[in-house]
Design brief:
The protein is an alpha+beta fold and about 575 residues long. The protein has helices at about 1-20, 65-75, 125-130, 155-170, 185-195, 195-200, 230-235, 250-255, 270-280, 285, 325-335, 355-365, 430-435, 460-465, 520-525; strands at about 35, 45-50, 55-60, 75-80, 85, 90-95, 140, 175-180, 205-210, 235-240, 300-310, 315-320, 340, 345-350, 375-385, 385-395, 420-425, 445-450, 475, 480-495, 500-510, 525-535, 545-555, 560-570. The protein contains 15 helices and 24 strands. A hairpin with a 4-residue loop joins strand 4 and strand 5. Residues about 1-10, about 215-250 and about 400-405 have low confidence and may be disordered.
Length: about 575
């Protein structure tokens, strides 16, 4: 009987071992990574001061999302501190630090089941990096923050400094690889500019992904004393074209509001109008406006279609263009009568020139940033998608029925989806803006992909794995995105009749992401090229000559076989 019980116990133990979840692979040689998200990329919780610190998730959520945004997230900018202060005096907004900061930037609504991928942020990247051998709390960390605030807010930068120190200590004194996405790149750049000593002490590499370094192709110039002439010229407006911040991002944000998700899922999130009122008082939005001093390939302008009467009283539709320094007036006019009702009180929310002043100084901070010695900077930007550069409301065929006498959010033109003039980018940030980091970069690589979707792109993962030294492929070239694999190497030497002969044969396989049509590749003839070099003899060397032939054989599926055959002849000294 005892033997049978032993057999049963052994069977159960064997079964437990079979069903036991395998331990993830951990590579202790890896340097730590800190992930920094962009705007709206962190879970936010509201802490009620009057209920013993009760917490409630306010971003992102489904049930009562719009109501919670209006009551807990709406805020007013304080020019004395540079903070956007929540309207509810009993509420304090915090970012959860569970899972070493990763919880707040992984899945933005952990409770969501259907359509959950629409609220993924760094989720796929975290899963992938764990496969490479990174370990949460040892070599993988996250830094979430209140994205309503300025990217140079002292409180946020102080938290980032503490985070860098804690990651450094938790990883055993190893320097950190920072991976930022979108606006997170501006936050990191502000920190690097204002606290370069701390940055140099703790950071090894900084990899920026899809960062709007020159703004999301919007224009912002702050100046005192806008003239009333602009307001007078804006009468009878029927259409607006504005080079916006990714362009539909900032201009449409100020004029239409915005949604962070598309499709049916947006019906469950905060309304565009509520988000609109929130972002008008957010310094981070104003800091996403483009640097006015940048030399754009196509200078952003604000154009207005409007109805104008000639001396005979006849109406005509004309197009007027406004340079950047005058375009701000349009936003001022559009938001001049904007109000919200909070706790039974009407609160004016115009275009905020105090925030614009603050954002102007942020641009100065960003422009002074330099990569410290010993730190390497890499820039990855999205390409191959149409990215709004200018936004157009209405058209030149607009009739007098839709003409208006002044700009306001109630104007008919703001009730319709705008039309866009696009440039190359990731659908949100133009490639021209993302590439213009103004820093000494080790590499800048364009990756086809959408602004947020690029964080799940395997092409991106391949590059990151190489730069983080989490792979064992020394032949991968992230710039050109191909792998060169040596497949054969032969060398022979012999002497004959006073000459030394050396023959060499080497072969490589080139594997690229680009895959041409297989039939076309197979039918292509090999490409052959040759080269000869020679040297005349002198007192220190003998005459010699070498010739080589390179043959490239197309194989399809992104593969090419390369052969090198070389022969050198020299006088045997």
């Amino acid at each position: 009987m005892a033997m049978l019980l032993e057999d049963i116990v052994r069977s159960v133990e064997l079964w437990l071992n079979l069903i036991k979840k395998p331990q993830p692979y951990v590579d202790p040689s890896l340097d730590p990574v800190l992930l920094v998200p962009g705007i709206a990329g962190s879970i936010l919780k509201a802490v009620d001061k009057d209920s013993g610190g009760k917490e409630e998730r306010v971003w992102v959520r489904i049930l009562a999302a719009d109501y919670t945004c209006r009551t807990k997230l709406w805020s007013r900018f304080d020019p004395q501190t540079g903070r956007s202060v929540t309207l509810d005096p009993k509420t304090n907004i915090v970012v959860p630090d569970d899972r070493y900061g990763l919880h707040a930037i992984d899945v933005l609504d952990p409770d969501m089941i259907i359509g959950r991928d629409c609220v993924y942020y760094f989720h796929d990247m975290i899963v992938e990096m764990i496969k490479w051998g990174f370990q949460e709390g040892k070599t993988l960390f996250g830094f979430g923050y209140d994205f309503r605030q300025s990217n140079r807010l002292p409180e946020t930068l102080e938290c980032l400094a503490k985070k860098l120190e804690s990651v450094y200590k938790a990883s055993g004194g190893k320097k950190i690889n920072i991976i930022s996405h979108s606006m997170g790149g501006l936050l990191v750049k502000c920190f690097m500019s204002l606290h370069s000593d701390i940055f140099e002490k703790y950071v090894k590499n900084w990899i920026a992904i899809a960062a709007p370094f020159r703004g999301k192709q919007f224009y912002t110039i702050y100046s005192e004393g806008y003239s009333d002439r602009i307001l007078e010229q804006c009468s009878n407006v029927v259409c607006v074209i504005g080079p916006t911040g990714a362009p539909g991002f900032v201009t449409s944000t100020f004029l239409n509001g915005m949604s962070f998700v598309e499709g049916w899922e947006q019906n469950f999130f905060i309304s565009k109008w509520s988000m609109h009122q929130l972002l008008i008082e957010c310094p981070s939005i104003y800091e996403l406006m483009a640097c006015p001093h940048f030399h754009w390939q196509h200078v952003p302008v604000l154009e207005i279609w409007r109805e104008k009467k000639d001396n005979d009283g006849n109406s005509q539709i004309i197009l007027e263009s406004y340079p950047p320094e005058e375009s701000i007036q349009v936003f001022k006019d559009a938001l001049s009568s904007n109000t919200v009702v909070y706790d039974g009180e009407d609160l004016p929310l115009p275009f905020n020139f105090d925030i614009l002043k603050w954002a102007d100084e942020t641009q100065n901070v960003l422009s002074r940033a330099k990569v410290p010695p010993g730190v390497k900077f890499y820039n990855i930007y999205g390409i191959d998608l149409e990215t709004p550069h200018s936004v157009c409301y209405g058209s030149s065929e607009a009739t007098r029925a839709v003409a208006m006498e002044y700009f306001s959010l109630s104007s008919p033109m703001f009730k319709f989806l705008p039309k866009y003039i696009s440039v190359n980018g990731d659908g949100t940030v133009p490639a021209e803006s993302a590439k213009a980091d103004g820093l000494n970069a080790e590499a800048r690589v364009g990756v086809p992909g959408e602004h947020r979707g690029i964080l799940s792109d395997h092409h991106l993962f391949r590059i990151l794995k190489h730069w983080l030294k989490a792979d064992s492929d020394p032949f991968y070239n992230p710039i050109n995105d191909y792998v060169i694999l040596p497949t054969a190497f032969e060398i022979e030497r012999h002497k004959e009749n006073g000459f030394q002969f050396t023959s060499l044969k080497e072969e490589w396989e080139i594997i690229s992401e680009e895959q041409d049509d297989h039939d076309n590749m197979v039918n292509r003839k090999p490409f052959v090229s040759s080269i000869c070099v020679s040297q005349t003899g002198d007192d220190r060397s003998s005459p010699a000559e070498a010739c080589a032939t390179v043959t490239v054989h197309p194989h399809g599926e992104g593969k090419q076989h390369v052969e090198l055959n070389a022969l050198s002849v020299s006088v045997d000294a």
